[in-house]
Design goal:
heterodimer; A: 298 residues; mainly alpha; MetI-like fold; 12 helices; 0% strand; B: 400 residues; alpha/beta; D-Maltodextrin-Binding Protein, domain 2; 2 domains; five-stranded mixed beta sheet; 17 helices; 13 strands; 49% helix; globular
Chain lengths: 298, 400
């Protein structure tokens, strides 16, 4: 009994510093943010007013335009579009590249080049995206003009119809390296015997891909999906440097809106409301990930 | 051998002692004052002689940092909450300081004794001077290369019709992408050109009434300026798509575009300022002038020295040095405009020709509305049919 208590004490001494730091730097600010979101600048209780104001603002959701008219549609739609396009593309590209570049000559070099996107700071990535899609200096509009598509041969970030797409495509370029690296690491853990057995059974490449590789990579894919979702929900830096959410709010995202409330409007309460909504979204992803982990699927 | 060793050790001691004395004398720490400015490159180069003169005069060291207002607005609140400041003098918008006067020290004693010599007024909050203007910028109109105009037989327009014909003529010149290049960045170059149209065709009163919220953005007078003048030019592709504003200077100077609407700081950013010409929209009787504002934060470690430096910057001596560098107009009425370089003298002449000057619209309103204004105009530039939507949003988001 005594030794058990001693073990507890030792364990506690290891855990306490981390818990104390988390309490001060994570729990307290999170609780304070939550509290702030229910008050106004004068400290008066306003209930859900901040949330209603935020959700009914045209920068959040412009139902007068969505879906009948073109963008701007609001940050909720923009973040959703980001997830719908970016998530499957980066995950699938990561798997495809990992499989294609597995055990081939020069594969490691190509993987390193693709991974470079992850090494570049996202703020720099935003600047790269701006120039990549710029009419005067960008390669994408140049290629489009060469292909005879004048509509896409102009600055993508200047037009509401293409600004968000430029950011998403640029982000795919930057983020695919993460998915590729994770899946490449996952591939190395699949027992070779499974493929040998499949060969004996006469399975083709596609059969092996869908019956062995992808199912065996599922735990890795779950982590990639969760991390990518979190990245997409919280996306900020590349939008800030490439478009500032414009033109006309057509590439506005939730995190940037929170930033504008906090540092342009100097309204900490509204910013807290957006932060709370963002936390709820990220929490949902976190809970899904933890549940899968507890079930032993990861 | 022993004697030799002792001698060497003694010599080493002596040498190191001398060296140490030398270090102490040579690096006697000078008092240091830090200033955060919004300028970089050529704009910063124009300002540095002022700092050099102050360093020589006071035998102090001035450390400078470059921070944009956009970045400072997110850094300063946290710093000030921690009772820290990144600099002893900080340049940021006056509206920001007026909104946060608790962080600024009172500069009344610095401003009041010389106030009759200053052209603009300081920023006040709660009866104290919280921020002071240092230099003025003017947005005189459309810049052109004299060599480009003479090579193509172009003339400065005297009427709106002549202006539209000039744009058509420029548009037809081989190699020209659009007659006017649109500067982009966070969006201020587009707001500058828009304000010029509002003032030229709506008058200085319209600009002032919009600043003071006496006129709505959806008012027919405002809409008329857009629908009759600006939007037709946008529809006719007289303006280019927004191009990053410093890149736009290169492209315009290189002959991709004919005209560029910009403030007078452009004079320090081109290869040959003597080739610059500028004209306002025909009929314009006023133009926008703005100021770069500085304040001394409460948490400066060096308030006295900071006051000394700011006082020098505002003095006749400091302003004279600044005038000679060009790129900005000084704020004192006792500094002769003949001190400016040639291109800046032309700007001063355009300013003098106007009946009045008005303050920058979005700088005056500030806050998140300023960001919205820039962003909505960027939308209007590529989607002129969204005018009603843009004006409605600008009105609905105006701070109370």
């Amino acid at each position: 009994m005594k030794s058990r208590l001693k073990q507890w004490r030792i364990g506690l001494s290891f855990v306490l510093p981390a818990v104390a730091l988390m309490a001060v730097f994570i729990v307290y600010p999170a609780v304070k943010t939550l509290i702030l979101s229910f008050f106004d600048a004068q400290g008066n209780w306003v209930g859900l007013k901040n949330f209603i104001t935020f959700l009914s603002h045209f920068d959040t959701l412009d139902l007068s335009r969505f879906p009948s008219k073109g963008p701007p549609w609001g940050s909720l739609i923009n973040n959703s579009i980001w997830i719908i396009i970016h998530l499957p593309t980066t995950v699938i590209l990561g798997i495809v590249f990992a499989v294609l570049l597995n055990n081939i000559k020069g594969g490691a070099f190509i993987k390193s080049v693709i991974f470079l996107g992850m090494v570049i700071p996202m703020v720099v990535g935003g600047v790269i995206i701006r120039f990549l899609f710029d009419e005067n200096s960008g390669i994408i509009p140049l290629v489009m003009r060469f292909l005879g598509n004048e509509a896409l041969g102009r600055s993508w970030t200047a037009y509401p119809q293409t600004a968000l797409m430029a950011l998403i495509l640029g982000s795919i370029l930057l983020w695919t390296g993460f998915s590729l690296t994770m899946h490449a690491a996952g591939l190395s853990t699949i027992p070779k015997e499974l493929y040998e057995a499949a060969d004996v059974d006469g399975a083709g490449i596609l059969r092996k891909l869908f019956s062995i590789t992808i199912p065996m990579l599922a735990p890795v894919t779950s982590v990639v999906i969760a991390m990518t979702l979190l990245y997409e929900i919280k996306i900020f830096d590349i939008v800030y440097t490439a478009t500032l959410g414009g033109p006309g709010g057509s590439s506005m995202v939730l995190s940037l809106q929170m930033y504008f409330y906090a540092f342009r409007k100097l309204d900490a309460n509204m910013a807290s409301a957006v932060a709370t909504v963002l936390t709820l979204f990220t929490l949902a992803v976190g809970i899904w990930l933890v549940r899968r982990n507890m079930k032993g699927e990861i | 051998m022993k004697k030799m060793t002792v001698l060497i050790v003694c010599m080493l001691f002596a040498v190191s002692g001398l060296y140490a004395t030398g270090i102490q004398e040579g690096t006697e720490a000078k008092p240091t004052v830090t200033i955060s400015v919004p300028w970089a490159g050529a704009e910063l180069d124009q300002f540095l002689p002022v700092l050099k003169a102050f360093e020589a005069k006071e035998n102090v060291k001035v450390k400078y940092l470059t921070y944009r207002g956009e970045d400072l607005s997110s850094i300063l609140p946290a710093q000030f909450e921690a009772k820290q400041s990144l600099a002893d003098i900080i340049f940021i918008w006056d509206w920001w300081v007026k909104k946060n006067p608790q962080y600024a020290i009172d500069l009344t004693s610095l401003w009041a004794p010389q106030k009759s010599a200053f052209i603009p007024s300081p920023a006040k909050a709660g009866g104290k001077v919280v921020s002071v203007p240092y230099v003025m910028v003017a947005k005189p109109g459309f810049w052109y290369r004299k060599s480009f105009f003479s090579a193509n037989g172009l003339k400065v327009p005297g009427t709106w019709l002549e202006f539209t014909l000039l744009l058509k003529k420029i548009g037809s010149i081989s190699g020209i992408k659009n007659p006017i290049v649109t500067g982009n960045g966070v969006g201020w170059p587009i707001s500058d050109v828009t304000e010029h149209f509002l003032i030229a065709f709506g008058g200085a009163d319209l600009q002032n009434d919009l600043i003071n919220k006496k006129v709505k953005w959806t008012d027919p007078r405002v809409k008329k300026v857009f629908t009759n003048y600006l939007v037709p030019l946008l529809v006719a592709n007289a303006f280019s798509d927004p191009v990053e504003w410093t890149q736009a200077i290169e492209l315009w100077w290189g002959g991709d575009y004919g005209l560029y609407f910009m403030g007078n700081w452009i004079t320090g950013m081109v290869k040959d300022a003597s080739d610059l010409g500028v004209f306002s929209l025909p009929g314009a009787k006023a133009l926008v002038t703005g100021q770069d504002w500085a304040f001394i934060p409460k948490y400066s470690d060096n308030v006295d020295l900071a006051k000394k430096l700011l006082s020098f910057m505002l003095s006749k001596e400091g302003q004279t040095i600044r005038a000679k560098s060009g790129g900005k107009l000084v704020i004192r009425n006792d500094v002769s405009s003949s001190l400016y370089p040639k291109a800046d003298q032309a700007v001063a002449a355009v300013v003098a020709k106007m009946e009045t000057t008005v303050t920058d619209l979005d700088d005056s309103i500030g806050g998140d509305w300023q960001r919205l204004f820039w962003d909505q105009l960027k939308l209007l530039w590529v989607s002129p049919t969204s005018l009603d939507d843009v004006l409605r949003k600008l009105q609905s988001e105006l701070p109370k």
